[in-house]
Amino acid sequence: MSRFPLSAIPTRAARWSATHPWRAIGAWFLLVAVAVGLAMTVSTNEVKDADYRIGESGRAEALLDSAGLDHPPTENVLITSKAGGLDTADAEAAAGEVATSMADVDGVVAVGDPVASEDGSALLVPVELASDEINAEPLLDATAAVQKAHPDLVVEQAGDVTIDEAINERVAEDLHSAEFISLPITLVLMLLAFGALIAAGLPVLLAATSVAATIGISAPVSLLVPAEPTVTSMIVLIGMAVGVDYSLFYLKRERQERAAGRSTLDAVTIAAETSGHAILVSGGAVIAALAGLFVLTDVTFNSLATGSIIVVAVAVLGSVTVLPALLAKLGRWVDRPRVPLLWRLTRRSAPGAISGRLLGPVVRHPVVALTVATIGILALAVPALSMKTHQATPETLPGDIATVQTFRAITSAYPSEGTSAQVVVTGADPVEAKAALERLAEAAGHFDDFATAGAQVQVSEDGNTSVLDLPMPYEESDDRATAAIERLRADLVPDALGDLTGSEHAVGGSAAEALDSSEKQSARMPILLGFVLLLTMLMMVAAFRSVILGAISTVLNLASVGVAFGILAIVFQHGWGESLLDFTSPGFVIDWIPVFVLVVLVGLSMDYHVFVLSRIRELIDAGLPTREAIHRGIADTAGVITSAAAVMVSVFAIFATLSMMEMKMMGVGLSAAILIDATVIRLVVLPAILVLLGDRAWPKRRTPVAASVPELSPTSWESQNGVLVPTGR
Questions:
Q1: Helix, strand, or coil here: 176?
Q2: CA of 698: how far to CAs of 67, 158, 553, 554, 632, in Å?
Q3: Of the candidates 408, 422, 475, the residue with the CA atom closest to the CA atom of residue 71
Q4: Which of 149, 208, 436, 508 could form a disulfide with 57 if both were Cys (CB 3.0 to 4.6 A apart)?
Q5: Pairing of the two strands 108-111 and 74-81
Q6: Does an H or E element contain 307, and which?
Q7: Is the model's pLDDT at 424 over the cut of 70?
């Protein structure tokens, strides 16, 4: 009879794969080939702009879109002087040349008249485009030609197309850099863990093929759940993380059993019964955490959740099928070719030799250890209580991108080109609607929040919809911009438009969109957190038949999340480490980062947690006293968890060095939190709590386990002051 619920699944799958290796290996690579073929034949259904609409701002955008009043994509050419004082004649001549050269570029609909800044230090030439999909290079070439002809002026360009293209290029460069660096780092860390090339390569191979299969499967799945452009990066990130972790857990245990003198088939079977079960449970926990993203009912998170859940499921499948088949076929060749120095080091290091001694004080003095660790965790987590979130804004873009610098210069000289609110009215008499919006502009002009000079009302061709743009002299992330939108919606708009019978109105624009997004996420974040923690707790209770272990898992996950959020607030909201990480604090954390960090961190930490508890459960079932089983179980698994965590910390730390603020935040939050989770929380807090609880956390098995539990690992231990201490092989 099986020792663990569902343990028959990985055991039977591994046993069949190990006895039919070529069939299992062939089936796996056929799956990958078919999936890649799907990606080549099925067009991916990508998210549309309309899918991103949220709340009142989304309704305003929909009204503008249906009325044909949405702003067409625009490029702006800024003309200033290098010396300081602008030569008006020279600037106007340059503006005329810009208009002439731009008019000949494909995709340009119209070139507006040059607009002088309020202080006369700049001219701005607006260029209206047919769509946001035209090539930016001819536009930039036209601007560069005018710059060359007027060396005393600064002629530069920024707009919807050029900024998007520059950001996309930078994102691609950053991701390519991360992938290029992370792969060799992963291989090096695997070599340090195993000391042999084939053993080091297997986790990377499984992870890479899992990612390839998932990318292929995602193409037809996108017909049901539209794919967000960043979903592929999420699949790669999560797939490589769990793929390496699961292979590492399985391979380490199989090698350990072979070292104890067991045959390859028996070693694979025992690894399936132990590590395979842990992989199945932890994979379910990761999927449960990722499923929490659906709670947000956001098109981006729906796409990310779908892709991530598929890649985790594929990685679990590979870990309990093709990996046992490869190990059975390779046999002892998995430890070839050996890297001489590394091989000797890995063979001489007995499992738990170092960690066992480090755990000694924690096991002997659990109250002191728990108190000190808790104080440290709380100190890091407290700043999370004041964490401010906001959508990404121009402030968060890398300042070394030329078009970003130009855009900031434009919004500085022309505030109307920056943050604005759009008030849309539909279904009212055109004359009455225009008059009401003009009254609104006059009333808004009494507040410093709005720059209403020159504000005009636009009316659709059918006269059914009117819109008023109200520029604001604030950055989009400024709290005053949020307050201005709230004042518009609560007071100014109802007062001005309340008498328009049979009409519908909405306040939109970038600041309104940020407010609606923030309010929706703030309302659903507690639900997301509760969903993830409750579901993972229930899975732990079901797996270990212990409510106490489920509660411990929830508390430790909450501690890890608190640390991650606290570090994000300390670094990016308060600016600690700006010079070290080469960034300027925007004063907030980009809103999707905490959500992403939450689900990924809980998922990855559950991997380690399940693996540790499974080993302790195994030792308790083998007859060890609970206190000694806790010490030895954590010591035995510490090396594997350290190796897995080292890979994750190294990969995420690479993201912390990239230029895009989102990637930097993600890298810092995850690398720091995983490091603390794998060390302080799993090596101090967890053993201290388990020692204090003793036998109460571990319900007795109804079925005798002596016949089904494998022998303990070959490390020799001796008791010192009631605590097991490793003495070597």
A1: helix
A2: 65, 63, 14, 17, 16
A3: 422
A4: 508
A5: unpaired
A6: helix 299-320
A7: yes
Which pLDDT does position 355 carry in this prediction?
65
H or E element in which residue 291 lies: helix 277-291
Distance CA 122, CA 116 (A): 6
Report the C-alpha gap between 396 and 460 in whole angstroms.
35
User: Do residues 216 and 35 lie in contact, with contact meaning Cβ atoms separated by under 8 Å?
Assistant: yes
At residue 117, what is the residue type?
Answer: S
In the structure, what pLDDT confidence band is assigned to residue 671 with cuts at 50, 70 and 90?
very high
d(CA 456, CA 489): 19
CA–CA gap between residue 673 and residue 661 (Å, rounded)? 18
Question: Under CATH, which architecture does the 73-165 domain have?
Answer: 2-Layer Sandwich (3.30)
Which CATH class, in words, describes the domain spanning 1-41+195-348?
mainly alpha
The residues of the chain that CATH labels 3.30.70.100 are 404-513
Q: How far apart are CA 153 and CA 327, in angstroms?
A: 68
The string over 329-364, giving b where at least 16 C-beta atoms fall within 10 Å of a residue's C-beta and e elsewhere, is bbeeebbeebbeebbeebeeebbbbebbeebbebbb
Query: Is the pLDDT score of 526 beyond 80?
Result: yes
CATH architecture group of domain 404-513: 2-Layer Sandwich (3.30)
pLDDT at position 449, please?
A: 85
Q: Which two tokens stand for residue 285?
A: 């926990």
Mean pLDDT of the chain: 86
pLDDT at 251 over 50: yes
Copy the structure tokens of residue 1.
């009879």
With contact defined as beta carbons under 8 Å apart, do 278 and 292 qualify? no
Per-residue confidence (pLDDT) for residue 348, from 0 to 100: 62
Q: Among residues 493, 491, 447, 489, which one has the least CA distance to residue 471?
A: 447
Six-digit token string for 467: 């819109």
Please state the rounded mean pLDDT for residues 382-399: 88
What's the one-letter identity of residue 206?
Answer: L
What confidence tier does 130 reach under pLDDT thresholds 50, 70, 90? Answer: confident
**Helix H or strand E segment including 487:** helix 479-487
Q: Where in the chain is the domain with CATH 3.30.70.1430?
A: 73-165
* Alpha-carbon gap, residue 359 to 634, rounded angstroms: 8
